[in-house]
Amino acid sequence: MTPPASTFDARDPYARVASWYEPLLGWPLRSMREAVVVLCREAVVGRMVDLCCGTGRQLALLRAAGVRAYGADVSAAMLSQGQGGDIVRAHGGALPFADDAFDLSLVSLALHEMDREVADAVLCEALRVAPQVLLAEYRMAERNIDLPAALFVHVPERIAGGAHYRNFRAFMRAGGVEGLVARHGLSVVRRERLWAGAGALVLARRPS
Description:
Layout (H helix, E strand, L loop, with lengths): L17 H8 L4 H13 L4 E5 L5 H8 L3 E6 L2 H4 L7 E3 L14 E5 L7 H14 L2 E7 L8 H6 L1 H7 L1 H12 L2 H8 L3 E8 L4 E7 L3
Parallel strand pairs: 1-2, 1-4, 2-3, 4-5
Antiparallel strand pairs: 5-7, 6-7
Helix pairs in contact: 7-8
């Protein structure tokens, strides 16, 4: 269920960071983005949409691999970086697409920084416009070997500060990406570890 538009923050929190987002984070995000491309090709995805797509770099990689990928993001500053193409400016919780317009929705590293109500709205919209969703997000450590990486991700999240870090901590207290999937009753099709166990790439289907 999509909350009223007033729930969404009209300010652009990425206005100050958009120009250095890719120079600073492009390399750390490279393994995740490559894993997304591999999974989408192996799943033989037809049309897909990347929600909260930011600069569009992931879209560029997908299209280079032959995937028909489109994007949506609310940040004008991030979209101005122009690496993707075929992107609309729209909030992930209120998409201008028809039901089942795509085969797959992708949401990567976005839900953890949102208020729970907004994150739930984005995920619901992702599952409205496609029967499957691919989530790239933080996860709870499952074994001791995961702990160093799980603790390290607190560093960049704490640097982001403010509401971002508060939402990240609430996201993790609720079980991370696995808790999110369980809360929405999704059926997991495939799961892969990311960032030495600190994150996961989860392909899931909406409840029937």
